[in-house]
Structures are given as C-alpha cells and as structure tokens.
Design brief:
F-box_dom; F-box-like_dom_sf; 17 strands; LRR_dom_sf; alpha/beta; F-box domain-containing protein; 19% strand
Length: 479
C-alpha cells in the first residue's frame, strides 16, 4: 500500500526539516534514504566544533568526504569554533600540542566550505594566519570573534620553529580586500610578547614593529555595514594609535563599554565626530559601569557624547540626562529601546522619561520602591510601547490592581506584547510564594480584547502566561 507521504513534494519536507533541531535531524536521516538526502542540507547548514576529540573526528570525515562527495561542503553556511585555547604557561604542553594540530586542521578545512557565509570564533586563537584564511573565503560575509587570544604568528602552528619566528617578515596586510559586511569583536586578550604593533610591554621592553596586525584593524574593511565591538580602555588606546576608521557603508553599530572612563570618553568624542550623525543608522550602546564623578558626568554633553544618536540604550540611568527630546524627534531613527541596569526612584526617573521620544518600544528598569504612577506615565508618554519589564512590583495584596491595570492602562496600549511586573528584593519572595490573583486567566483574556498583540504576561518569578498567536489560548508555565 502506497503511503500518502510519498506524494509530499521535496521542498515541503525541506521546509519542515529547517525548523527542527540538529538532534532531531540526526534521527530523521536514519529513517529512509529519501529523508537522508533531504535532511542533509539543513543538518549541514550550521556546523559547531566544540571539543578537540570530536572536532578531530569531524575534520577526518570532511577529509574523506572531499574525495567522495564534494557537494556536501557546499551545503555549509555557518561554522562555530569553540575548541578552546590554554596558554602554554599552564604546563600542559601535550594538550597544547593537540590543540595546535586541531586548530591548524580547522583553518585548513574552512576555505573548503566554498559557500560559507558566517564564521564564529569563541575562546580560540586569532593570529595573522586568520587573515590569510579569510582571503581564501570569498563568500564569507560575517565574522564573530569573542573571548579569543591574539598570537603573533604568520604561519600555522605545526610549521612554527624558533628560526621561522626570527625570519618572519611582517608586511602590511590589505584588509580592504576582505569582503566582510558584518564584524563582531569582543574580549580579545593579547599576552605579553604578542603585541601586534610597536608598543612597549608592561616591563618596559620593546618589540619590533608588526604593522597593522591588530585584530581591530579588521574594522578598516570598507564593505562593513554592521559592527559590534567591546570598547574597553585598551580598545581606546588602539583606536588612538591606529587613526580613524571611516565606515563608509555602516548602517548598524553595537558598542559594549565594560567601564566608561575619561579615556574612553575621549575616544568616543573622536569616533563620533568622525562618524557624524548619519540619519537612519541603528546605534546600540551598552554601558556596564562607569567611574566618572558627578562633575565629569556634567561635562559629558560637551565632549560630543550624546544619546541623540543612539537607537537602543542599555546601562545606568545617569546617561539619560543627555537625551534631548527636540533633537530626538527631529531625526529619522529615535531612541526606541531603554534597558536601565541601575535601581531608580519613580520621582527621579519620570522627568527623564518625559524627555524621551514617544516612539519608545521597549522599557526595562528596576524600582527601589514600587509606584503604580509609573505605569500611568508609560501609558501617557509611550502609546506605542511593546515591551514593559519592571522589577520592584509589590502590589500582591491588592486585588483591585488587575482591574485598574486593564481598564486604565492596558486599554490604551494596543501594541503591547510583553508585560512583566516582578518583585525586586529577597524580602518579597515570601509574599510572592503566596501571591495569587483569583481568575488571572480571566483577566488576561479580557486584556487580550484590546491588547491583541499581547503574548507574554508575568507577575511571579515562578510562573508566567504566554501564547504564540492571537487565536491561541493562554497557557500557564511554571519554573
């Protein structure tokens, strides 16, 4: 008897397989010959190499596949490398040797994925050898470097000898020839003895110059349209050393600042003056902490560091002072996302929120003391809000709160998708454990009549309500 599944077209199966997890696809390819052939494409679309031993086996497979079925290499679109790197000072020289061998094999294999679009390096080694490999990958468009270590070697590990290091020539590298459009660089460690330019070590000993080999010189690639970087003090120094990066085609910029210092502020001033304030550019700024005094904070607006060019902001509430409402409303792309990482008081934050563009879509914050007045202010100031996430909620014993929430606030927020009002302090957890609004599902169903986009509601850290589509019913989930 012929199964009706045989009449389902191949493109339908491929569409279904693309939504499955890798572990599920691994089972699918074992069911029949047809599924094995169809599931290969989504299964090989993204490859992740994590452990040395398994990565070595995978590389051996690709070496054999190159002889038998060259078409499989063309299916790979993304490779994630997380095999890890241990500094030789740890004493495990045998483990280091195994890493070096596998690392060389990885970079030997990468150019053989002829349609590779994205490469992610985490906890790996970055060296001039990487740049040479990138030149052999004309289809690559996205490069992500996270938590990596820079090493000054021009040839693969297995070809390194003391003599080759002494005889190494350090020519200028032409980053302009790389075709990348997206670049993400975060947390690059440079051990002593591997400085990529003529800069003295901490002990005062100098190095021979190695021109423009620093990984941050990847930012000079003229074809970049989106960039994500960690702007640390060392980054600020390298920016001052390297000169200006023009970014002629840049449309998206994400900056993470671990600690905002005066030195970082000065580099920001130079950078934003060079970048200008292009209309339509999406700029995300994430400030994790700062060591500026009140007087220095007051001078921020005079050094060219202004949030009127920022689309999404994450960080302390101190810097909201530099948002000018008139300038925000006058540009094409206003501030749309605010995630405050410091605890604030309603009386202090409300005047700052009143100066933000009415087109704000996402607002996250933590309150020292709960005040329902904040929700009324959000309804009035940001009618297009889509995501409200507030820590500090403690109206556990007020059953009338839900009635007022729906009738007086949510009724005027038709675009709202996420509503999270959570307790802030440990002392609130005992109240939270006993927290229960009668017929909460009934209230949520009522809110859905005018908040048709609402998908997620949470008042307790232990449970939440969600639905995927407007026509779906609400389901409660527990942690």
């Amino acid at each position: 008897m012929t199964s009706y599944l045989e009449f389902v077209p191949d493109d339908v199966w491929i569409t279904i397989f693309e939504d499955l997890e890798t572990s599920e696809l691994a089972v699918i390819i074992r069911t029949c010959r047809r599924f094995r052939n169809l599931a290969r494409k989504p299964l090989l679309k993204e490859i992740k190499w994590v452990k040395l031993q398994s990565t070595k086996r995978h590389l051996d497979f690709w070496k054999c596949t190159a002889r038998r079925n060259r078409g499989l290499a063309g299916l790979v679109k993304k490779v994630v490398v997380e095999i890890g790197y241990d500094n030789p000072t740890t004493g495990d020289h045998a483990g280091l040797l195994r890493f070096e061998r596998v690392h060389d094999l990885v970079f030997y294999q990468l150019p053989r994925f002829i349609f590779l679009h994205e490469l992610v390096l985490r906890g790996d080694v970055v060296s001039p050898c990487l740049y040479m490999t990138l030149l052999k990958m004309p289809s690559l468009r996205s490069l992500v470097i996270e938590d990596c270590t820079y090493i000054s070697i021009l040839s693969p590990f297995m070809k390194q000898t003391p003599q080759t290091q002494l005889d190494a020539q350090w020519p200028q590298f032409d980053f302009f020839s790389l075709p990348l459009t997206h670049l993400s660089i975060h947390e690059i460690t440079i051990p002593k003895g591997h400085y990529p330019h003529n800069e003295t070590d901490e002990d005062g000993s100098g190095e021979e110059p190695k021109p423009n080999w620093h990984p941050l010189h990847l930012l000079t690639i003229p074809s970049l349209t989106s960039v994500s970087v960690t702007w640390s003090s060392s980054f600020a120094d390298q920016y001052a050393y390297s000169g200006w990066w023009p970014f002629p085609k840049l449309s998206g910029l994400h900056i993470v600042v671990p600690v905002l210092t005066k030195r970082v502020v000065r580099s920001f001033r130079a950078f934003f003056r060079k970048l200008g304030n292009p209309l339509g550019m999406i700029i995300d700024l994430d400030i994790q902490s700062h060591d500026l005094t009140l007087a220095e904070l007051g001078d921020m607006g005079t050094v060219g560091f202004q949030l009127n060019s920022i689309r999404r902001y994450t960080g302390p509430s101190d810097f909201l002072t530099f948002v000018n409402k008139d300038m925000i409303d006058g540009i094409l792309e206003p501030l749309t996302h605010i995630i405050l990482t410091s605890t604030v008081e309603v009386a202090i934050i409300l005047p700052e929120l009143a100066r933000i563009s009415s087109r704000l879509q996402v607002l996250h914050m933590s309150l020292s003391v709960w005040d329902t007045e904040l929700l009324f202010a959000i309804r009035h100031l940001f009618p297009r809000i889509q995501d409200i996430n507030i820590n500090g909620f403690n109206s556990f014993s007020n059953p009338g709160f839900l009635i007022n929430l729906g009738a007086d606030i949510l009724f005027d927020l038709p675009n709202l998708r996420t509503l999270k009002l959570l307790p802030n302090y440990v002392s609130d957890y005992s109240k939270e454990n006993n927290f229960h609004f009668d017929d909460l599902e009934g209230y949520i169903l009522g809110w859905s009549r005018y908040c048709k986009q609402l998908r997620y509601v949470q008042f307790s850290r232990a449970s939440w309500w969600s639905r995927r589509f407007e026509s779906d019913g609400w389901k409660e989930y527990r942690d």
